[in-house]
């Protein structure tokens, strides 16, 4: 399979944090603390590894034992034990590229490498251990939603979310505690379940006191193009980045809203074939990442369906990095939301 390495390198620039998060879940702690020392994903310990401060651009990092890796290709080759061609292929897939290096309209290919059956078993076991979100033991989740400004009743009938009463939290390969957690089932573009997203909580409904309270498990298959399917898809579908943002939009509008979990995955989202109108409820970030991802998604899909992007029209509060639609709901209520139906008729 021939891949244009120069094209992949150019497109990966400024996107490495998302690429590394997708291809190497073992870098979760390092990605949450870019530029700071954390446990090495290979050797363990407490402070033997760090991503470079410019990791978003370069993808590079350094291990105290093995030395520096100047870019994401070198880092992944070391971390995963891949050859360079295998790494190039995996990065190209994460970017949603075709063999020529261009972005295809509605397809992805996957690297020719075997999946680890242990990953699938861990995913299945964790999901089986989860309880219905309406279960009496799910009080920590209901408390959490209320603290965030959401009505817990918004979860009624949701099958793609579960509550785990005591989920292990791993750091540096060791269990650092067990916490209540929200489990979200992530499906690929074709609807196949491929991983779980976890939100670790405290019994009284706060985010757990851990370095990364929101984490993806290892992926079984291809996450690119997928989302958490909160509700059955119809011809009109909405997408957002975060789960709580999606629930906020759903609470106000009554629409089916699927969270993609990150701006990188939002950009690569692939709607089902029967969707004719897609509403994108974008985050407003100081970096502009959320808006750029939403606009890239709109441009990629606009020749196939109607795509409308809604971004909060309010300034980002002092001291905050972003503003999303849950923030709008909390601050202004439903009146802060656009009259989206008028835009549909335009």
Short characterization:
32% of the residues lie in helices and 22% in strands.
List the helices and strands and how they pair.
Layout: H1 5-12, H2 16-23, H3 28-32, E1 38-40, E2 44-51, H4 55-58, E3 61-63, E4 67-69, H5 72-80, H6 84-94, H7 117-129, H8 139-148, E5 161-171, E6 174-187, E7 193-200, E8 214-216, E9 227-228, E10 236-240, H9 243-253, E11 257-259, H10 263-267, E12 277-281, E13 284-285, H11 289-301, E14 306-310, E15 322-323, H12 325-332, H13 340-345
Parallel strand pairs: 10-11, 10-12, 12-14
Antiparallel strand pairs: 1-2, 2-3, 3-4, 5-6, 6-7, 6-9, 7-8, 13-15
Helix pairs in contact: 5-6, 9-12
How would you characterize the overall build of this protein?
This protein has about 350 residues and is of the alpha+beta class. It has three domains: about 5-95; about 115-215, DNA primase DNAg catalytic core, N-terminal domain (Alpha-Beta Complex), CATH 3.90.980; about 225-345, Rossmann fold (3-Layer(aba) Sandwich). It is built from 13 helices and 15 strands. It has helices at about 5-10, 15-25, 30, 55-60, 70-80, 85-95, 115-130, 140-150, 245-255, 265, 290-300, 325-330, 340-345; strands spanning about 40, 45-50, 60-65, 65-70, 160-170, 175-185, 195-200, 215, 225-230, 235-240, 255-260, 275-280, 285, 305-310, 320-325. Strands 5, 6, 7, 8 and 9 form a five-stranded antiparallel β-sheet that branches. Strands 1-2-3-4 form a four-stranded antiparallel β-sheet. A four-stranded parallel β-sheet has the order 11-10-12-14, with helices on both faces. Helix 5 packs across helix 6 and helix 9 (about 245-255) crosses helix 12 (about 325-330). The longest helix has 13 residues, at about 115-130. It starts with a helix and ends with a helix.
């Amino acid at each position: 399979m021939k891949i244009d390495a120069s094209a992949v390198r150019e497109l990966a620039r400024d996107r490495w944090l998302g690429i590394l998060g997708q291809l190497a879940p073992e870098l979760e702690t390092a990605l949450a603390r870019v530029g700071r020392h954390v446990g090495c994903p290979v050797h363990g310990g407490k402070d033997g590894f760090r991503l470079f401060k410019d990791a978003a651009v370069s993808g590079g990092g350094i291990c105290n034992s093995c030395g520096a890796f100047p870019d994401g290709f070198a880092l992944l080759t070391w971390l995963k034990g891949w050859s360079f061609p295998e790494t190039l292929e995996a990065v190209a897939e994460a970017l949603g590229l075709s063999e020529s290096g261009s972005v295809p309209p509605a397809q992805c290919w996957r690297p020719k490498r075997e999946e680890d059956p242990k990953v699938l078993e861990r995913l299945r076991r964790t999901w089986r251990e989860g309880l219905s979100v309406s279960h009496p033991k799910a009080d920590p989740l209901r408390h959490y939603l209320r603290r965030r400004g959401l009505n817990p009743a918004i979860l009624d009938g949701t099958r793609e979310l579960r509550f785990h009463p005591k989920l292990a939290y791993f750091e540096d390969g060791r269990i650092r505690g067990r916490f209540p957690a929200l489990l979200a089932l992530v499906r690929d573009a074709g609807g196949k379940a491929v991983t779980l997203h976890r939100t670790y909580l405290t019994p009284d409904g706060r985010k757990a006191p851990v370095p990364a309270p929101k984490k993806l498990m290892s992926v079984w298959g291809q996450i690119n193009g997928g989302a958490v399917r909160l509700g059955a898809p119809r011809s009109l579908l909405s997408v957002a980045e975060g789960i709580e943002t999606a629930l906020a939009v759903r609470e106000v509008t009554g629409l089916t809203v699927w969270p993609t979990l990150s701006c990188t995955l939002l950009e690569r989202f692939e709607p089902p074939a029967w969707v004719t109108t897609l509403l994108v409820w974008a985050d407003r970030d100081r970096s502009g990442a959320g808006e750029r991802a939403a606009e890239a998604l709109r441009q990629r899909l606009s020749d196939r369906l109607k795509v409308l992007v809604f971004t909060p029209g309010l300034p980002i509060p002092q001291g905050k990095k972003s503003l999303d639609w849950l923030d709008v709901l909390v601050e202004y209520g439903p009146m802060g939301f656009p009259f989206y139906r008028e835009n549909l008729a335009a």
